[in-house]
Design goal:
This protein is of the alpha/beta class. The protein folds into four domains: 2-213 and 522-532, P-loop containing nucleotide triphosphate hydrolases (Rossmann fold, 3-Layer(aba) Sandwich); 218-225 and 352-499, Rossmann fold (3-Layer(aba) Sandwich), CATH 3.40.50.300; 231-350, phosphoenolpyruvate carboxylase, domain 3 (Up-down Bundle); 551-680, RIG-I-like receptor, C-terminal regulatory domain (Metal Binding Protein, Guanine Nucleotide Exchange Factor, Chain A). The protein is built from 21 helices and 24 strands. β19 and β20 form a beta hairpin. α5 crosses α6 (145-158), α9 packs antiparallel against α11 (280-301) and α18 (464-471) crosses α19 (490-513).
Length: 681
């Protein structure tokens, strides 16, 4: 192993994997888990007949990172390696790619899609793989795609089916699963071990070497006092009180403190209640209260003008039409106060003190003659863009040589990044063209930048796993880990709690490792059996829920104006992803807007225009048209924009998987026959 460049602690943690055991390697971020897994893969490929290794990751940018920095340099000369992500053409014939390769690095979703796909060129069986490496394996729980793959594995194991791949999990922290007692934390670690069918190993003999090679950053709490005067926030709260008075809250409704996540949860429930009870006053006022609460949350974290801008954007672009007196009141209230709100938001005397503290924290590490790299972690995509604008328009930060960019999750929409944008941003940060990433949690895990010497957590309330992952990004000697927060605030309390939970995680792992092999296997077998039973019960309950109503008995209503627009039986599931309305008469209920632009192309379809409610002045967004196989122009609907009128009353659903009726698969052949029939008639 020495000629491979492994440290003693890495050699220690891979020994059982080399012997063919299923294990989880637990090493801190920066401890070289990936390098250790490369060595295991190398030995596996060299010693096992017909060996095939698959490396699963949970973030797209890690596919390229692991391939380029770790696996290809050490295995590329002697073995055929391939990397596959959502943008790769190889995903369309993934089964053939797996057959012709020695080692495949891909996102877990791609493997899962291949496992359930019946087309020979795309299908992959777990038995095709001899070693399955699962990066950030603490995500193997509940309904994560990692756990869906491992449930498939466990079902076959419990039936006695073979062969099955050897499992190698990698994690910096399995966490406590929300547990605050040692007994429950031990149960959580055992559950992760059961889900992965693996024992958990860590450095023991070489623990001092690990501590020396992977130093922890210097942690500071950069605390600010609560601002004494906040006339902008106070004005928002007064407007919220007026809305609450107008909506005549039901006696059983008690809203918690505004400007908190709890208040947001309360008004979300209130909007749903308004829809169910056909009370548009309640539903619309709750919807607007959420926007004001969001502005208060932004005001607490960012600039006052960012908070004002979020409200202005809602009323100027997203809420452009009024249907009845409720809308006229809500729009009028904002317009009457708009000038005053803008004036207050522009007054520097009352600006958020956290922003000044964040500026000083950054300036301690950055300067014209200082070579620093930092990551600023914040909660939402909106926050990253607001902070990016602030950095780029801040003279002091620009003079210090800060070159920043946003890093958020991949997806569709203005605030999302494409996979290529993610990769380019990380590459530019690694080579120094950028020196500050302003990131959501997407960069907490796996980002390999050894020289990063500053991590700032700003406005975050996360668990101990996210905290450890973020802290581990600061890998340079004497690096800094800063928490910018308000004195006595929830961020500080959560950070201190997470420190306790991190310690509890270590104790729980030690307790699990101290179990005898027989006792460990017995406990794991019990948990695995319970997991499979739990999954079967859950699937049965889902089927029962889906079968609650016949689709022909459920009507879809516009979520905004409550106008009935379609029957659920008109909805079909296209390519296991899109819910489209195939009734040609449906087009009488919507109007067509602008062309939808998506950051990537698709094999069988392309986006058309947005569609919105045509009833009166409603204009509620419903989704967009999609052109399928260059023939069918189908309305692709988002269920969150509709209410469901069932035989037992009105309900709402956030996602299509939550609807209480079965949706049949779309038949392109049947669709074409119907169109042709209508044409001939």
């Amino acid at each position: 192993m020495a000629d491979f460049g492994l440290y003693g602690y890495q050699e220690e943690v891979v020994e059982r994997a080399i012997d063919g055991e299923n294990i989880i390697i637990w090493l801190p971020t920066g401890g070289g888990k990936t390098r250790a897994s490369v060595y295991v893969a190398k030995r596996h490929l060299e010693t096992k007949t017909n060996a095939k290794v698959m490396v699963l990751v949970n973030k797209v940018h890690l596919v390229d990172q692991h391939y380029t920095k770790e696996f290809k340099p050490h295995l590329g000369q002697s073995h055929k390696l391939v990397k596959v992500s959502g943008d790769s053409e190889e995903k369309d014939f993934f089964g053939l790619v797996v057959q012709s390769s020695d080692l495949i690095i891909c996102t877990a979703q791609i493997l899962y899609n291949a496992m359930i796909n019946t087309e020979e060129a795309k299908h992959v069986e777990l038995s095709d793989i001899t070693l399955l490496i699962i990066d950030e394996c603490h995500h193997t729980h509940k309904e994560s795609v990692y756990n869906q793959i491992m449930r498939y594995y466990l079902e076959r194991k419990l039936k006695g089916e073979r062969p099955l791949p050897q499992i190698l999990g990698l994690t910096a922290s399995p966490g406590t699963g929300g547990a605050k007692s040692l007994q429950n934390a031990v149960e959580h670690v055992l559950q992760i071990c059961a889900n992965l069918d693996s024992a958990i190993v860590s450095a023991k003999t070489y623990a001092p070497e690990l501590k020396e090679k992977v130093p922890r950053p210097i942690k500071t709490f950069d605390i600010v006092e609560k601002r004494l005067l906040d006339p902008f926030g106070d004005h928002l709260k007064e407007m919220m009180e007026l809305i609450q008075g107008f909506m005549d809250l039901p006696p059983d409704v008690k809203l918690r403190e505004c400007g908190t996540q709890e208040y947001e949860a309360d008004v979300v429930v209130l909007e749903q209640r308004g829809v169910r009870e056909n009370n548009r006053v309640l539903a619309q006022c709750a919807l607007h209260l959420r926007q004001y609460n969001d502005a208060l949350l932004i005001n607490d974290t960012l600039r006052m003008m960012d908070a004002y801008g979020s409200l202005e954007d809602f009323y100027n672009t997203k809420f452009t039409t009024a249907i009845d007196g409720t809308d006229f009141f809500l729009v009028g209230l904002f317009q009457e106060n708009q000038v005053e709100l803008r004036k207050l938001a522009a007054d520097p005397r009352f600006e958020n003190l956290k922003m000044a503290k964040l500026e000083s924290t950054l300036l301690k590490q950055f300067g014209p003659a200082v070579q620093s790299k930092g990551i600023l972690f914040c909660k939402t995509r909106k926050t990253t863009h607001c902070l990016s604008d602030w950095v780029q328009n801040n003279d002091a930060l620009q003079s210090a040589g800060i070159k920043s960019a946003v890093l958020t999750g991949a997806g569709n929409g203005i605030t999302y990044m494409t996979q290529h944008e993610q990769v380019d941003t990380i590459r530019n940060f690694r080579k120094g063209t950028l020196n500050l990433l302003i990131s959501t949690s997407v960069a907490e895990e796996g980002l390999d930048i050894p020289e990063c010497n500053l991590v700032v957590r700003y406005g975050l309330l996360t668990n101990e796993i996210a905290q450890q992952q973020a802290s581990g990004r600061a890998r340079a000697r004497e690096s800094q880990y800063s928490v910018v927060a308000q004195a006595g605030g929830r961020e500080v309390r959560r950070e201190l709690l997470n420190e306790c939970l991190e310690e509890l995680t270590g104790k729980a792992i030690t307790r699990v490792q101290s179990l005898s092999p027989q006792d460990f296997r017995r406990k794991i077998a019990r948990l695995q059996t319970e997991e499979i039973i739990r999954k079967k019960v859950s699937e049965k309950q889902k089927v029962e829920k889906k079968s609650k109503y016949a689709a022909s008995s459920v009507q879809l209503l516009c979520r905004n104006c409550f106008h009935p627009v379609a029957w659920a039986s008109d909805i079909k599931l296209l390519e296991n992803a899109h819910f489209v309305n195939i009734n040609p008469d449906f087009e009488n209920n919507y109007k067509v807007g602008g062309q939808v632009m998506l950051p990537k192309t698709f094999e069988d379809w392309e986006p058309g225009c947005t569609i919105s409610c045509k009833n009166g002045q409603c204009s509620m967004n419903w989704g967009f048209q999609m052109k399928y196989k260059k023939i069918a122009l189908l309305p692709n609907l988002a269920i969150k924009n509709f209410a469901l009128e069932t035989p037992d009353g009105r309900v709402t659903a956030k996602k299509w998987k939550d609807v209480p009726f079965m949706v049949e698969d779309f038949s392109f052949e049947e669709y074409c026959q119907n169109v042709l029939h209508d044409f001939l008639d």
